[in-house]
C-alpha cells in the first residue's frame, strides 16, 4: 500500500497545499477535512484514525506525541508511523523529503515509530 499522509491541524497549511500541487497522486488528508477526524480531536483518537485508515501522521507535536504513541502501543495497537516536522528546516525542503519518502520507502518501514524529519 502506498504511503498516505494525515496532516495535523496545527501544521502550516502550506504543507498540504504544496504537497498536493507538486505530487497530486500522493493521498493527503488534513485533520478537519471531510472523512477525517474533526478539528480539536484529541491526539490518541487521531492515532486510532491513522491506524484504521493506514495514514502516517505528520505533526509538529514533539512534546506529547511520544507519550501518546507509547500509550497506543501499550494497548496492542499499531500505527503506520508519525513524522515530526523540524521547525528549523524550510517548508520546501520538508516537502521534498515527504515526496522522497513516499517514492522510496518500504511498506511498513515507519510502523509503530516516530521519525523526526529530516531523516539523516
Characterization of this structure:
The chain is α/β, with parallel strands linked by helices and 120 residues long. Helix 1 crosses helix 4. A five-stranded parallel β-sheet has the order 2-1-3-4-5, sandwiched between helices. The chain has helices at 14-22, 43-53, 65-74, 91-104; strands at residues 4-7, 27-30, 56-59, 82-84, 114-116. The mean pLDDT is 95.
Please, how many helices?
A: 4
Percent strand equals 15-25%
Instruction: Give the C-alpha Rg.
Output: 13 Å
Helicity level = 25-40%
Q: What's the β-strand tally?
A: 5
CATH architecture: 3-Layer(aba) Sandwich
The CATH topology name reads Rossmann fold
Biggest sheet strand line-up: 2-1-3-4-5
Point out poorly predicted stretches. none
The domain tally reads 1
Ends apart, CA distance between termini:
24 Å
Which structural class best describes the helix and strand composition?
alpha/beta
Give average pLDDT, whole number: 95
CATH class: Alpha Beta
Form type: globular
Protein name: DUF5615 domain-containing protein
Organism: Floridaenema evergladense BLCC-F167
Give a quick summary of the entry.
By secondary structure, this protein is of the alpha/beta class. It has one domain (4-116): 3-Layer(aba) Sandwich (Rossmann fold), CATH 3.40.50. Helix content is 37%, strand content 15%.
